[in-house]
Amino acid sequence: MRYELRGRTAVVTGASSGIGRELALQLARKGVRLALVARREALLESLAKQVVADGGEPPLVLAVDLSKRGGADAVAASATKAFGSVDILVNNAGGGVGGAQWHVGDREEARDAFEVNFWSPLALTAALVPSMLERKSGVVVNVTSLAKVMTWAAMGHYAATKAALSIATETLQLELTGSGIRVLEVLPGPVDTAIQAESRLAPGLDELLAMSPQGKAPRLATMIVAGIERGASRVVYPSSLAATYHLPGIARAITRRKARKLDGALDRLDPLVIRTGSQGDPIALEARAAWEQEHSTRQR
User: Fold this and answer.
1) Is residue 4 part of a domain?
2) Is 158 part of the annotated catalytic residue set?
3) The domain containing residue 246 runs over which residues?
4) Are 118 and 13 in contact (CB under 8 A)?
5) How many domains is the chain built from?
6) Which member of 3, 158, 237, 245 is catalytic?
7) What is the mean predicted confidence (pLDDT) over 88-111?
8) CATH code, domain with 251
9) pLDDT of residue 197
10) What φ, ψ does residue 60 adopt, rounded to 5°?
11) How far is CA 60 from CA 71, 76, 164, in A?
């Protein structure tokens, strides 16, 4: 049965840029009332103005740092107070840390990545799904990553957070079977967003990504909206990478072969540790800013 979006309410985390921003715009055009969540308030306010300019209702803007414990609970409380109930939860916010695992360990940067990518989605699920169960209706969208089946050097912690969320999502799908609540896992591969600029700081990743198609955030947002409407359980994008999901052994063999060909380049992992995301370390912010500048230039 088709899920009617008009008149629904949605919480979208990581809405300030990239996939989250595009998804928020497309949901608003479908008549969804939005709570926009991210750390960068100015970008959220700009997005809210765009939503209104497109004919949507003024969104609720929540500038919250989901890397801090308690942030998710604050989001759920504010959205519930504003809307009365939340029909759609989109766990899209993401952050990470780059570096060799023997240097990253369980540092603060690593724990923050798990807080944003794993614990906050679970906290929002715990806060919002019970009321969905009472109504026997709702949608949970968790944005994981194809990194769960094909990681790379210096990206182990990020891939682990997404793999953990993926397993939690699959489990949630089982737990909510027959409840009337839909659970959609979104598994992006390379998508032309700022995270690509940060990821390419990992030695050798440029060469690996050159073998893969590059997706576009608006197209992925369209696929997510369609997935919500038709009750899909999974969206893999770019679609040509679906085989990577179903045959992960092949993908892993490719990464092992590429790693052997780096001829010592992995030595550059030692001892660098980089916090990524919109509030990351200077080297990551510089890469992100360069991507954003190039992107804005292409759009002119």
Assistant:
1) no
2) yes
3) 9-299
4) no
5) 1
6) 158
7) 92
8) 3.40.50.720
9) 65
10) -85, 125
11) 16, 12, 29
